[in-house]
C-alpha cells in the first residue's frame, strides 16, 4: 500500500491565546479529492497553511510526502513543499508582470538562484509555460500583462503556475471565492479534471457548500478548529451539514 500524502495527528495551532486548530487528525491518500467546509473562522486557511508548511503546528505531528515536519531538516521540508502547489483566493500573482513570468514563479523554488534571477529578464522554459497555459485554456495570454486579465483568467494563471511545479498535491484555499459564480464553476471543473487527468491529489477549502457536496467524494467539516465530520459524500446527511453552520446562522444579523 502507498503511504499517505499527508498525515496529521493531534495537530493544534495557536495564535497567542487564540486557538485556530485543536487535535486535528487527518490522513489524505494519493489521488483523493477532499473538500474542507466550515463556517468563517473554523480554521480552514490555517489547515491549508499547516499542510503546505507555511504555518507551523504548535502541537501534534505533521507528515507530508513522507517528510516529518518536526524532525526533518529545512532542506527536506523545502523539497517536499516544492511538490505541493497552493492556489489562493486572491491568486497571489504579480499583476505588473507578464503571464509567462508569473507561471515560471512556480519553479523558482527548484531553480538555482542564477536561473531564477535570469528568468525575470529572459523567460525560461517557455514551452513548458505555454503547455501549462494551453492546458488551462488561456494559451494566447503568454505575454499579456497579468493585471489586465479577468479574475477567472488570473486564477487560470495561478493554476498554470502550480502545474509547472509538477505537483503531487494541489491545495486550493477558496479558489473560486473571488470569481463570479459561472466562472467559478468552470475553474472548479478544471481543477477536478486536472486532478483526475494527472492523478494529482486535490484538497480544497470551499465556502460554497453546494459546490463541495456536488463535486467531491470526501468532505471534511471543520468547526471551531476541530473536525466535526470526515465522511464520504454519499454518507453525509443534510442534518450534519446544517449542524456545522448552525452557530453561524444563529449569529447572522437579521
Ligand atoms: N495571524 C493570526 N493571528 C491571530 N489569529 C488568527 C490569525 N490567523 C487566523 N487567526 C484566527 O484563527 C482562527 C482560524 O482562522 P482561519 O483563517 O484559519 O479560518 P477560516 O476557516 O479559513 O476562516 P474564513 O472562512 O473566514 O477564511 C480564527 O479565529 C482567526 O481569527
UniProtKB/TrEMBL annotation:
Q: Which domain of life is it from?
A: Bacteria
GO MF annotations for this entry?
ABC-type phosphonate transporter activity; ATP binding; ATP hydrolysis activity
What the entry lists under InterPro entries is as follows: AAA+_ATPase, ABC_transporter-like_ATP-bd, ABC_transporter-like_CS, ABC_transpr_PhnC, MetN_ABC_transporter-like, P-loop_NTPase
Keyword annotations for this protein, in alphabetical order, are: ATP-binding, Cell membrane, Membrane, Nucleotide-binding, Translocase, Transport
Gene3D superfamilies cross-referenced by the UniProt entry: P-loop containing nucleotide triphosphate hydrolases (3.40.50.300)
Q: Which residues form a coiled coil?
A: none
SUPFAM superfamilies linked: P-loop containing nucleoside triphosphate hydrolases
A cellular component term from Gene Ontology for this protein is: membrane
SMART domains hit by this protein: AAA (SM00382)
Q: Where is the ABC transporter domain?
A: 6-249
| A Pfam family the protein falls into | ABC_tran
Q: What is this protein called?
A: ABC-type phosphate/phosphonate transport system, ATPase component
Give the organism, scientific name: Haloechinothrix halophila YIM 93223
From the broadest rank down, the organism's phylogenetic lineage runs: Bacteria, Bacillati, Actinomycetota, Actinomycetes, Pseudonocardiales
Amino acid at each position: 500500500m502507498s503511504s499517505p500524502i499527508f498525515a496529521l495527528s493531534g495537530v493544534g495551532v495557536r495564535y497567542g491565546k487564540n486557538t485556530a486548530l485543536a487535535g486535528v487528525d487527518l490522513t489524505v491518500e494519493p489521488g483523493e479529492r477532499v473538500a474542507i467546509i466550515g463556517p468563517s473562522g473554523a480554521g480552514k486557511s490555517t489547515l491549508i497553511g499547516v499542510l503546505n508548511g507555511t504555518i507551523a503546528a504548535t502541537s501534534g505531528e505533521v507528515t507530508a510526502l513522507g517528510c516529518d515536519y518536526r524532525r526533518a531538516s529545512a532542506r527536506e521540508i523545502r523539497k517536499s513543499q516544492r511538490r505541493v502547489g497552493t492556489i489562493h483566493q486572491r491568486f497571489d500573482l504579480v499583476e505588473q508582470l507578464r503571464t509567462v513570468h508569473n507561471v515560471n514563479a512556480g519553479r523558482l523554488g527548484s531553480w538555482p538562484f542564477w536561473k531564477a534571477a535570469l528568468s525575470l529578464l529572459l523567460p525560461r522554459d517557455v514551452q513548458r509555460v505555454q503547455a501549462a497555459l494551453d492546458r488551462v485554456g488561456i494559451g494566447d495570454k503568454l505575454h499579456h500583462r497579468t493585471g489586465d486579465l479577468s479574475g477567472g483568467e488570473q486564477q487560470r494563471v495561478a493554476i498554470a503556475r502550480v502545474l509547472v511545479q509538477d505537483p503531487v498535491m494541489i491545495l486550493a484555499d477558496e479558489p473560486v471565492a473571488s470569481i463570479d459564480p459561472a466562472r467559478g464553476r468552470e475553474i472548479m471543473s478544471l481543477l477536478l479534471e486536472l486532478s483526475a487527468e494527472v492523478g494529482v491529489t486535490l484538497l480544497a477549502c470551499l465556502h460554497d457548500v453546494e459546490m463541495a457536496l456536488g463535486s467531491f467524494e470526501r468532505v471534511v467539516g471543520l468547526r471551531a478548529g476541530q473536525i466535526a465530520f470526515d465522511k464520504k459524500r454519499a454518507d453525509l446527511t443534510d442534518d450534519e451539514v446544517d449542524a456545522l453552520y448552525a452557530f453561524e446562522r444563529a449569529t447572522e444579523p437579521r
